[in-house]
Predict the structure.
Amino acid sequence: MNQDTPESNTLRNIRWLIWLYFWLLIFEGALRKWVVPQLSNPILIVRDPVLLLAYFLAVRARVFPMNKWVFALGVIGVLSTLLTFVTLWPYLRPSRIALVAGYGFRSNFLHLPLIFLVGRVLRMEDVKRFGYWTLLLMAPMAMLMVGQFRASPDAFLNRTAGGEGEMMTAALGKVRTAGTFSFVLGVVAFCALVTAFLVWAALKRDVYKSWVLVVAGSALIIGISVSGSRSVVGACAVVVGSLLVIFCLRPSAVNRFGQTLIVALIFGLIVSQTPIFKEGFNVLSTRFSEVAQATEKSIGAGVVERVLSDFSESFFVLTKAPFLGYGLGIGTNAGAKFLTGHNMFLLSEGEWSRVFLESGPVLGLAYVCCRIGLVFAIGLLCLRSVKAGNVLPLLLFSASFLPLLNGQFGQPTVLGFSVLVTGLALAARKLEDDDLPPAPEAPSVGRVAGRRVVGRSAYANRLHGSPPPRPHANGSVDR
């Protein structure tokens, strides 16, 4: 009888912890807003014990990722933490410095190895199951967002983390709906993930039941319309835009997507006639128009300028940041809470600018370069998967590469989705797509159709070519 080995049991436990990480990521905002708002601050790091336990089990099972990325991040993280004590020692008590630096280390470094752990221990069936539950969750998430959209800004549904305050407004008196998350950035990441799995199911087919795709697709369209957020639209558009890369690398995917696209357009037209979509779309379009009028730029130019402004600001800050920085974690909202008692951006709202001001131009730039390198390295792996006929890694990566590049890691939801979805992209590389024809094999070196290469000695031909058939001197085979 086959029995599970201790190693397989440990791997199973790690997978369960990854699932727990996922469910906490989805519902920790609801806990902070509605269930136990008085514990909002501790719940901010509720996934960290789960993460540390997964790391511990991974070390025991010898599957913890010890690659060059994890090593580099570990060195930068330790140096940044030590320099924070040096910088802040004259001004703060050691215990306060430890809180601020500890949260900064947690935000910048602690969760990133999870990318490689997820990619190593999850099987393809686990990735499919993640997609199944993500698609199923889209329907209740959209229903909650509709309730928040129709409720007043000061309603119970629109409370912020801690049970006090109101959500940011979009336009026409409506809020930017946050679903179960503490802020709209959670909806941005979640809708992008739903879009990735929907597009993959449309390309591959027969992965999930048709009713799951219909319900999830309808909920996604309605959720985007009532979100009141330009970022939600942009994140989903980036995922859909990755199809251009897929079609260029795998033209055969165009034929399979054609019929699905026609069905999707017809279905989208039907959903767009619902009253809630029309109302939400009106608010969303007003939001785009108001921003365009305020900046005196077109809608497209305004979106591009918003994206580029974060990078341009960071390069300016790089030249002004003190050499040792102001201290790891000070630029996060939680770090500001430890220091001032209020959530705010003490340094900069932009991610790279925060990193440069916290850790200085040397360590800060080294950390940013690590994130850039991660994006390019994992992106290349996903492109190779597309060439091999597997499009899911690129679709998932398109939902996570922007926050991995310069998302606000001080915001726990952004950090969680960045590492988990990127890890799913690596795990999805284990899929072999049987629907696409394999690439033709190159002829073996030294042989051309099994014949002797002209100009090669008999000895070389025997050495590199296929062995000749063994002669038979007698027996029925030779007759």
User: Anything to note?
Assistant: The mean pLDDT is 86.
